[in-house]
Every structure is written in C-alpha cells, then in structure tokens.
Design a protein that fits this description.
The complex is a heterodimer of chains A (546) and B (593). With 546 residues, chain A is of the alpha+beta class. Chain A contains 10 helices and 18 strands. Chain B starts with a helix and ends with a strand. The chains are: A alpha+beta (546), B alpha+beta (593).
Chain lengths: 546, 593
C-alpha cells in the first residue's frame, strides 16, 4: 500500500471540517460524520453499506458500516469498535477515516484482493449519548449513556450535575483555599493540582472539586449528573455487581446489547479491534500458570478464566509487534483498564481475537503525572489552549472563601489535535489492513485418489491453515459462539461411505497447522470436498472418480 | 333435580367453621337449596370438610394431574372471576413464542394497597420439564383464596402480605414437554433455536418418537458381548454386567436417528440452553457455566420476571420451584460467593426458616447450593438475593423418600410396579432403525421419575405451600408502639416512639444494606413543628444520633427481625402526634397519640 501522506491528510481533513468549542477543534460532530458516511456509501455502493446495530438509551442510532465485496456475511471479518468511552473520541474519527481510506484505495490491487477475502464491520460510535458530550456546551467529560442512574445511591436520580461556574463553555476544576486543603499546584505546570506529599514536607493548600454546585446539599459536588451507565463498564467479563456506573446487571444497556447482538449475529468475525481506553497492542496481555482453560491442565470446569491463554498470548505479542511497527508508536498509554470493559469481553466471553488501543497517546515521561506529562508534551509541540488559567469566581456554596476555576480542559488527555488526525489515521490504517490480511485461512491441498478395486476408492486430502492465526483462538474454541469447521465430501453417483463420514465437524487448526483426512468410498463421478467455517473462509477441491 | 342439588350452596355461617353434615338428598335439603342457592356463591355441600383443606370451593381443581398452558389459563381465570377482591391476573410479558407470562397478585385488596405490603413471590417451571412447580404455585393461589373466609391465619396473611404467583416462567417449552415426545429431563431449555454442535445449523437433529408412545425412551440392541443384561428382579429393566458375566444388550441411547448425516444422533435438539443460568448476578459464559447463553437475561421470559421484580421492590421473600431430589436450596451458589457473601444475619434468617421447611416437608433437606450441590453461575436464586436483597429458596420438588416414606428404600422400579401398576412403562418392542438396524425400544415414559405421580401431588403441593406461607408469615411485620410525650416546657415536646418488627425477617437483608438496594425505613411524625430528630441508640443512657437533614422523617437503615428501633423528635406545638413508618419491604404502620 503506497499512499502519500499528503493524499491521506487531504482525505482526512476533508472529512473533518467543523469546529467545536474544545481544545481540539475540527472533530466532526455526529451529524457531520453521519452525512459524510452517507456520501461515502453512496460513492461506493458495491463496497459499502450502512446499517444500524440499535438505538441508544437517549434514542440515537448506533451506526454500522460494512465494507466488503459480494457475500460479506460468509467471509472472515474484522469488527472495529469505537466511541465506547467519550474520552476516546479520537477512535471514532480514526475508524471513520479508515473507512474512507479503505474505499478510496479499493482499486489498489492489494486492497481489492483483500476485500475479496475479508469483510470489515465498523461500529465507530457505539455510545453516542456519551460521545455527544464532546460536542455539547458546556463540554464535560460525561461518560454515561442517557439512562437515568443513581450514581451515589441516595434514591434521588441525576440530582447533582456539573455547572459551568465561570461560564467559559468547559467544565474544569474548582479549587477552594482551605486550611485543611489536600492539594497544591504541580511544580511542573500550575494548571495541574497534585496531592500534597507530607513526606516531602508539603502542606495542602487547596480543596479540589469538579466545577459545579452541591445541588442536593450532601457535601458532594456533581456526584450524580444526568445519565448514565458507562458502557465500557457494562460487559460481563469481570463485571462489578453494583459498580458505581456499571448498570443493573452486565449488558443491561441498549448500547452494550446492540453491539453484542450484532457480534453474535455475525459468526464470521474472527477478530475485534477496539479503539478506546483499553490496550493490549502496546503491552500484550499476559498468561498465568493455573489459568489455562484446556482440561488437560486440570482446570475445574467452574474455574473462571481471567488470563489470556498461552497460544493466544503468542498471537497477541505478534500482533502487538505489528502494530508498533506500523504505527511507530512508542511507550504505553496510561493504564485506564476498568472492570466490565468491552475489549476483554470480546476475548473472554465472545471468544474472538481481541486487540485494543487508544489509537494515539503521548508516551509517558518518568516522574510526571499523566496531566503534567500531556501539558509538557503540549508546550514542547506548540499546542496551546489545553488548559484554563486559574481565575477567581464567586461560588454560592463557599461564601467568603477564595475559589478559583481552571485546570486542564476535558478530553485533552486522550484527544489528539485535529491537525494530527490524518497522520494518526494513516498509521492505524496500515495496521488494520495488515491485521485483516492475517485472517484464518484453511486451504485444502494434496488431494489424492487411489483406485483400490472396481469402483472402490481411497481419497486423501490435507487441510492446511495458511495463517499465523488459529482458525479459532485457544479460549474461543471452548466457546459455543464460535463456529467449528465442517468438512464434507459430496457428489458422485450413488456414493457410499466405507470409511469416513460425508459430513464431519472438525477441530480447530492452529496457525500453520495441517490435518489429514481420508475416506474410502464406493461409486463414481465428480466429487467435491469442502472445508471451513464462516469465520475462517471456505476451501474446496474437486476431482473425478473414474 | 340432580343439577339443582349440585348447585346447593352453604350459608355463610356454615362456611366459617361450623360442621356441615351431609344430609343426603332429602326433601329438607332440597328446600334449603332453594333458599340458600341465591344467597351465596358456593358450589357444593355434598362434602365433609377434611381438616386444612377448603371443602366448599368456588373453583374446583383436581390436584392429581398436570395442566397445559390452556389449563393454567383456565384455572387463573376461574380464580380471578370467583375472587375479584382477592386475586388479580396480569401478564408480566411475552415468551419467546409469544405466550403471556401470567402473574397472579393474591392479597386482600380491600385492606391496604398491595405495594405497601411485604411481598412474597412464587414461580415454577423455569426448567421446562420440571412442570410440577406450576401446580405447586397454583395450589398456593387456590388455597389462599379458598381458605380466606375459613381460616384466621390465612386471612391475616392476606390482610398484610401480598403474594405474586407466576405459575410458569417458561410456557413455550412446558407445552413442548407435554405435547411432544420428550424424556423426563427434556427440554430443560426454552425454545429459542441454538446451534449446539456449532456446525452452522440450528436444532437440526432432535429426538424421534420411533415407538410412538409420546415419550422418548431408550434404544437397546441385542449383543452377546454387550455391557448390559436383564435384571432378574424386574425383567423390564437392564443392569450392567459384572466381571466375568455374559452380556445381552448394548444401550444405544435415547430414541432418535441421525437427521443431518454427521454420524451423531440427537446432538442438536430444540434450544439447549439453561434458563436458570441466564440471570444477571455472577453470570459466567458457557465454557465456564454450561447452559449460559449470550449474556445475562438473553431470554424474554426471564427479562419479564426481572422487570416485574424491579417494579415490585416490596418482594422480600421468594420461592422458585424446581425438580427433583427433595431439597430446600439456598444460596450462595458459588464458593466464597463472589460479591454476595451472606452476612451472619442473612445466614441465620435463611437457616431458621429453612429448618422449619425441613420439618414441614419430610424427605426434603436444607442445602447450600455451592457447598452441598454444585457451583451455579447466573442462577435465578442468586439474582433475587443479589439484585433485590430478598430471601430466596428454591425447592427441588419430588423426593425418592416419598415413594415408601423410607429413607432406606429408593427402589423406583418396585414403586412403579406396586403403586403405579406399571402405568408408565412402555414395554420393549422391536423396530428397524435406519442406522442401527434391528433395535428394541422401551422404558419409562416422561411422566415418571421427576414429576410426582398423581396421588402424591396434592400432598406435596400442600406441604410446599405450607412452607411458602410460613416464610411469608415471617416477612417483616412493623408496628409503631409506645409513643411517649414529655413536656420540655416553652411549648416544646419530646416525642419518643418505638417501631417494632415482630417477625424473623429484617426490613433490610445484609445484601440490601451493603449495596443500598432499597431506601431506608422512613419514620415520620405529624402534628407539630419538628425542631430536630434522632435515632435513640440507648434510651436509658441517652445515646442518640441526630439527623440534621429533614429531621421530621428519620431514616432508619434497618429494623432487624424480632427487634425494634426507637426514634425521638423535639417538636414545637401540637398535642396529638401521628408516627408513621414506611418501609419498602416491611410495609407501613402508624399510631396516633
């Protein structure tokens, strides 16, 4: 794939032409993005279809973009998910940009050949109630869907939201000068408040709250705003019962069920890539002894598997190396893993290869907090407008006290400036295209027919997995939501099976693995052997018994 | 003449306890009939009341047979028509195939709002083949309504508790079990199609009723080297051969053929998931917890119950009927309990009530699921306790003990022969099988082994209902007692009130308190201007905890079982005070002084 950077940037910037009130301007609001998607689908009617996975709690459509050729449902597929966490709006832009690039390049022989073999399901914005917060005024890091939720379990719902006290259109931090203060300004950047460290002789000067009022007079600020269940805490792997924003039970929400239903309905998906807070592409998941699912390892059936299986770990390491190589990213993003997240669910409960990345990050510098780190990076790279200077305000809940509002703007930590989007998207594009090209690939080879006697034949064939990936991964093989490969021998005139079955459900093949099949049949005529499953693709060979 | 006699109705006096003598078909009675028939709604007085059972029922039901879905609807409709002030019927939702999930609300509707009474929930038949839970649940509805006028205990229960009775949680597959050929154990699942063998086809290889007896029985084949031979004690049965013995038969499995030509028989039957591994508490996927499906509450039947439960937070006690084995099951269902470790108080409540159950239902044992049985993730019982904080049991109906009332004798073949007279055994008969050639097919029909034989059904229904009613009677019962008014001078009064709970169950289980599932108990005062309010922790040492926000309504986190909470207000003005308590699972009470 040779695409000049210039072309890419032109493509991307043409999509992202609107402005927002945030530090990062130029991200397309949902309306703009959707109309760009519609134009794209109209321009490539044979390759691109738009559909809906469902409706969010707030009544917004959860869009699906299918890119592929012909019978897309019967080819191995990669599902790419974004927008699960509103802080990672960049993922939505990367996926939209990826779609556009893929279609623009669809005449390229390599991409054209890829689309012959593989289907892409893109769900760029699966939590639209939350991601819309990025485009709202005031802009606040709101992560929940629109489902009313009693965050503090005080039996009043959504009674204490944020307020834009200083009227600057963004919700930041309030600091209140107080003798019993816990925080001081960071030495690295005064926009950042850090906890005073008594071991260094530091004494706190400020009390910190998010910007707003204590609407219900319970001493807490903004602890129960409008909405919402965090969709990335609502999946069933390592789900936290009664977790603060986890929902009434795992997959209780429209959004999580819509995505899960879409994935379960598409048995052909072999890998899921998530653009969001989780990451196993810079730092692969680790296996652990005693956490192998295969029964030979002595696992009790009811033991909950919480670590990646060894064989899948190897694949994760290989794909991670590919990602870092294609993107040139270094270091690791700040660890944001939370319980009940989607990316781990996709591996542990959906049973597919699951890869996750924020898609962009600032490499962490030692001894700096993530906030200090991003502001340092910003000043070194000429980014302005990432924070609000501290300015005093009159706050009705703190009469007679010195209260100042300021600090880092919402979304800054995780959202690259619009000017970088083209380059970031191109890097991720290169990775995604390579990953899709690695789809499981069982191929029938070495067909042999031995004429034993009269109309009696022995037929042998080899099924070889041409891919590095297994036909189903090690954990997924035990999961009923993965199809098994079926091998059939059909045709001939009055074919009878002396040895072997006309249809057999067959075990998985690891990467590069081979298995032999033999039949002894009686009969004549054209026969066809077919092998595979929707998530691996099919292979077929024919011959004549004569 | 005859039809007129059967329409005879007793007088109200007779119904409320006096002995009714059957005077035969005398002229005197005929005369009486003419007078009383128009006065009451009763049906028949040809009967002498057996103790503990309503004799003169408005709704006659035979408790020695099983009901189809239409039969269930008929019973529910007849009960609601006969007792409009005691029972109402609604749909909690639709099943996968579109049947209504019927729920009965049973209470004295003339005494308080149902939602203000502690609720007791009963369901049955979540496993489709475990059908007698439905009859047990219906028996409770029938017994509560028919006994209402006859029995003080029942009247009190109906006055201050509400029962939510869901006869079948799985109507589609109940119908399949009854009408289609099945074993005693199939289908456990609901009827949403599933690809059990993961070959891309759904439900493509089910049972076939080759011998046409309406049940799926066993296929055997003569083989001198087989591993089975005829049981000399009962030639209908086969037993494994011992070392050195010559065999007679192979057992080939349950009746069926290889429908899809993959060399396997009956490997992808209808559904094949477990509706009782579908609940949203400590859920785990299918490779850890067999029977789990896509995610918690995949199935509409269970979602209906979830929504019903969340709309009725007053439900404080739950019974979910299964079969079999004679067990009173309680949680937790997994070791350590994950996040649902039971508090000591919850443990005590469940054990105390459960032990009474062991007494009421001989042959049934109180067991903790994970410890005494096996691990279950995503079970209904754990969801009720985990998500609503209600004390929950699951009775495994039908115990081998019931056959001979003898813990030593579990011989079901003998029981079937001597007490059921071979009614459920299809004799072995030869058939041509497309794969196996000449086979013999025979064995017990689906109505033997897991569901009660007719003559034992009513007896066990009564015992299990008695346990449910006992549990319901031990839900919280709140009263405001001892309002003490002390004049502090200057127009101020100190008003102290005690709120008691006279039953075993606390208003808030440990789980409920841990996760703040329900609001606290609100104890409020009317009749003056409240200056401040407090909970009195030690009345005699004057240890109190003041509530500064909204002091007129004191928030008491829990009113424990057989215990009390004392509250106090300093009030300006007023000379008559009303103290009210309102509790989600404990009901309401008030007192004025």
């Amino acid at each position: 794939m040779k695409i000049t950077k210039l072309t890419t940037i032109l493509i991307i910037t043409s999509m992202f032409s609107s402005a927002s009130l945030n530090g990062q301007t130029g991200y397309p609001d949902p309306g703009k993005r959707r109309s760009a998607e519609r134009e794209m689908a109209a321009a490539y009617p044979d390759l691109c279809k738009l559909s809906s996975a469902g409706i969010s709690a707030g009544g917004t459509d959860i869009p699906v973009i299918t890119i592929g050729k012909g019978d897309t449902g019967n080819k191995p597929a990669v599902a790419i998910i974004g927008g699960i966490d509103s802080r990672y709006i960049a993922g939505t832009a990367i996926i939209s940009g990826f779609a556009k690039m893929l279609l623009e390049n669809s005449k390229d022989p390599e991409i054209s050949a890829l689309l012959d073999r593989v289907t892409f399901y893109l769900l760029p914005d699966i939590n639209p109630d939350a991601t819309s917060a990025f485009f709202s005024t005031p802009s606040a890091s709101v992560r929940g869907n629109a489902n009313p939720w009693d965050e503090d379990r005080d039996f009043s719902v959504d009674e204490d939201p944020f307020e834009d006290i200083n009227g600057d259109g963004v919700i930041t931090i309030m600091r209140i000068e107080d003798e019993a203060g816990t925080h001081i300004e960071s030495g690295s950047n005064s926009a950042v408040m850090v906890k005073a460290d008594p071991s260094k002789g530091e004494k706190g000067k400020w009390i910190i709250h998010t910007e707003g009022r204590d609407n219900d007079g319970d001493g807490l600020f903004n602890e129960d705003g409008p909405g919402g269940v965090f969709i990335n805490n609502n999946f069933s792997f390592d789900y936290e019962e009664w977790g603060r924003n986890a929902g009434i039970h795992a997959l209780s929400e429209n959004e999580s069920r819509a995505v899960a239903d879409f994935l379960y309905d598409h048995y052909n998906i072999f890998a899921v890539v998530t653009y969001g807070p989780d990451d196993n592409l810079s730092k692969p998941w680790k296996s652990a002894p005693g956490q192998q699912s295969s029964p030979q390892q002595g696992r009790q059936r009811s033991q909950i598997i919480k670590n990646i299986q060894r064989e899948d770990e190897t694949i994760n390491q290989m794909v991670s190396a590919l990602f870092l190589n294609e993107t040139g990213f270094t270091g690791t993003p700040y660890n944001m893993r939370e319980r009940g997240n989607f990316a781990e669910w996709a591996y542990y409960h959906y049973g597919r290869y699951s890869f996750a990345t924020p898609g962009w990050w600032v490499p962490q510098t030692r001894d700096l907090t993530p906030e200090e780190n991003i502001l340092k990076w910003g000043s070194e790279n000429g980014m302005e407008n990432l924070y609000v200077d501290w300015k005093p305000v009159e706050h009705p809940d703190f009469h007679g006290k010195k209260v100042e509002v300021g600090g880092i703007k919402p979304f800054v930590m995780t959202t690259p400036p619009e000017s970088m989007l083209g380059e970031i998207t191109e890097k991720n594009y290169n990775f995604l295209v390579k990953l899709a090209g690695m789809h499981p690939d069982p191929v029938l080879t070495g067909l042999r027919v031995e004429h034993l006697e009269k109309d009696l034949y022995r037929i042998s064939v080899t099924l070889h997995n041409n891919s590095m990936l297994a036909t189903t991964n090690e954990l997924g093989d035990r999961n009923k939501w993965n199809r098994r490969m079926v091998i059939t021998l059909e045709g001939g005139n009055d074919l009878t099976f002396i040895s072997g079955k006309p249809k057999e459900i067959t075990g998985r093949l690891k990467g590069n693995e081979t298995r032999e099949y033999n039949w002894v049949v009686r009969g004549r005529g054209e026969i066809t052997i077919n092998a595979g499953a929707v998530n691996t693709g099919f292979s077929s060979v024919s011959t004549s018994l004569k | 003449m005859k039809s007129q006699e059967t329409k005879y109705r007793p007088t109200p006096v007779q119904r409320t306890g006096s002995t009714i003598f059957n005077l035969g078909r005398s002229l005197l009675v005929s005369l009486l009939v003419a007078v009383t028939a128009t006065l009451t709604g009763q049906e028949n007085s040809n009967f002498f009341k057996a103790a503990g059972t309503p004799a003169n029922t408005k709704v006659s039901i035979s408790w020695n047979r099983y009901n189809t879905y239409d039969g269930i609807m008929d019973i529910c409709q007849r009960l609601t028509k006969a007792y409009p002030d005691l029972i109402k019927m609604e749909s909690a939702g639709k099943s996968f195939q579109g049947r209504d999930i019927i729920v009965l609300t049973v209470t004295n509707f003339n005494n308080g709002k149902p939602e203000n009474k502690p609720g007791y929930y009963i369901d049955g038949n979540i496993h489709s083949n475990e059908i007698q839970g439905t009859e047990m649940a219906l028996y409770a509805a029938w017994y509560l309504t028919e006994m209402f006028d006859e029995n003080d205990f029942i009247r009190e229960l109906m006055d201050d508790r509400v029962f939510y009775i869901l006869p079948t949680i799985n109507p589609d597959a109940r119908e399949d079990y009854i009408h289609n050929p099945n074993t005693a154990s199939s289908p456990r699942s609901g009827l949403a199609p599933r690809d059990d063998d993961r070959d891309g086809l759904f439900d493509e290889d089910g049972f076939e009723d080759i011998n046409g007896d309406g049940s799926i029985t066993t296929m055997r084949r003569k083989n001198p080297n087989g591993r089975y031979r005829t049981d000399p004690a009962d030639p209908r049965q086969m037993i494994p051969v011992q070392e050195g013995e010559q065999g007679e038969y192979d057992i080939l499995g349950m009746e069926g053929i290889d429908n899809d030509g993959d060399g396997l028989v009956n490997e992808d039957r209808q559904g094949s998931y477990d509706p009782n591994r579908d609940w949203g508490y400590s859920w785990q996927p299918n490779y850890i917890q067999g029977g789990a499906d896509k995610y918690p509450f995949t199935f509409p039947e269970n979602r209906s119950v979830r929504d019903f439960a969340l709309n009725h937070p007053n439900i404080a006690g739950v019974q979910s009927y299964h079969n079999s084995g004679g067990m009173i099951l309680r949680g937790p269902s997994m070791e350590g309990g994950g996040s649902e470790v039971y508090t000591r108080e919850d443990d005590n409540v469940l054990n105390t009530i459960g032990k009474v159950g062991e007494k009421l239902i001989p042959g049934y044992r109180l067991l903790v699921i994970w410890k005494d049985l096996y691990t279950v993730y995503g079970g209904e019982l754990d969801w009720w306790y985990g998500a609503t904080g209600a004390y929950t049991y699951s009775n495994e109906l039908w115990a081998g003990f019931l056959m001979f009332n003898d813990p030593q004798n579990n011989n079901r073949n003998e029981f079937e022969k001597l007490l059921l007279h071979g009614d459920t055994f299809t004799p072995w008969k030869e058939f041509d099988h497309p794969v196996y050639g000449k086979v013999e097919i025979g064995g017990y029909k689906k109505n033997f082994g897991r569901i009660h034989p007719g003559f034992l059904l009513e007896s066990d229904a009564h015992r299990n209902t008695a346990f449910a009613l006992y549990h319901a009677s031990q839900l919280p019962k709140l009263a405001v007692r001892d309002i003490e008014i002390k004049n502090l001078g200057g127009g101020l009064n100190e008003v102290t009130a005690t709120v008691t709970n006279s039953r075993i169950t606390p208003t808030h289980s440990g789980q409920n308190l841990k996760y703040r599932i329900d609001p606290p108990n609100y104890i409020s005062i009317e009749g003056g201007e409240v200056i401040t309010g407090m909970i009195v922790e030690d009345r005699w040492m004057n240890v109190t905890e003041e509530q500064k926000r909204n002091p007129a309504t004191i928030e008491a986190d829990n009113i424990p079982g057989n215990s009390e909470v004392t509250v106090r207000w300093i009030v300006k003005g007023g000379n008559k005070y009303t103290v009210k308590v309102k509790s989600v699972k404990g009901g309401v009470a008030e007192l004025t002084k």
